[in-house]
Write a structure and sequence with these properties.
Blueprint: H1 2-34, E1 39-42, E2 45-49, E3 58-63, E4 66-72, E5 84-86, E6 89-95, E7 106-108, E8 113-115, E9 122-124, E10 129-131, E11 143-146, E12 149-152, H2 157-164
Antiparallel strand pairs: 1-2, 2-12, 3-4, 4-6, 5-6, 7-8, 8-9, 9-10, 11-12
The chain binds FE2/S2 (inorganic) cluster (FES).
Length: 171
């Protein structure tokens, strides 16, 4: 009888530990998703360190009052002229405002697409329109690459080329 009770106590404690470990894991994953990347803001520029960014997790920064989406592509995502290459990694950077009427689209990592809840517009993981009414892709903010850092607000050669190629309009 005593052995049975001890066994039950042990199983209860083990289950409690297992549940607590799972909860802590889930909370730390959520924290990682919600925490902003290390960034520095100065005189209209925002510098974001992308070196520790996880794949296929949308990070939203703020630049000049606008939400800026930064998405590190996973290896299975198709390449696109709007890709931003930093080292061996590919990123998508965009102003996080729907080009229809300015709502903030949500990212769905399993489908790898953005959906705007206001009128049902959809964009792929490079911000290109999958479903109207958005009239054009998500806009790309001026950016410059410095090592593993992204400087928002400065026009680097990659951004100037995108403008020249008509891949985005100036914001
Ligand atoms: Fe996004 Fe209308 S504001 S679809």
């Amino acid at each position: 009888m005593a052995v049975e009770k001890e066994r039950r106590n042990f199983l209860g404690a083990a289950l409690g530990l297992f549940t607590a470990a799972g909860g802590i894991g889930a909370l730390s994953a959520m924290k990682y998703t919600w925490d902003p990347l290390p960034s520095v803001k100065a005189a209209g520029f925002t510098t974001i360190d992308l070196s520790k960014m996880p794949e296929n997790v949308l990070v939203t920064e703020k630049w000049r009052g606008k939400p800026i989406f930064v998405l590190k592509h996973s290896k299975d995502m198709k390449s696109d002229p709007r890709d931003v290459k930093i080292g061996d990694d590919i990123y998508f950077i965009a102003v996080g405002l729907c080009t229809h009427l300015g709502c903030i689209p949500s990212y769905f990592p399993d489908d790898k697409k953005f959906i705007c809840a206001c009128h049902g517009g959809q964009y792929d993981s490079n911000g290109k329109v999958l479903k109207s009414p958005p009239p054009r892709p998500l806009d790309i903010p001026p950016f410059k690459i410095e090592g593993t850092k992204l400087v928002l607000g400065e026009e680097g050669p990659e951004y100037k080329k995108m403008l020249a190629d008509g891949l985005t309009s100036k914001v």
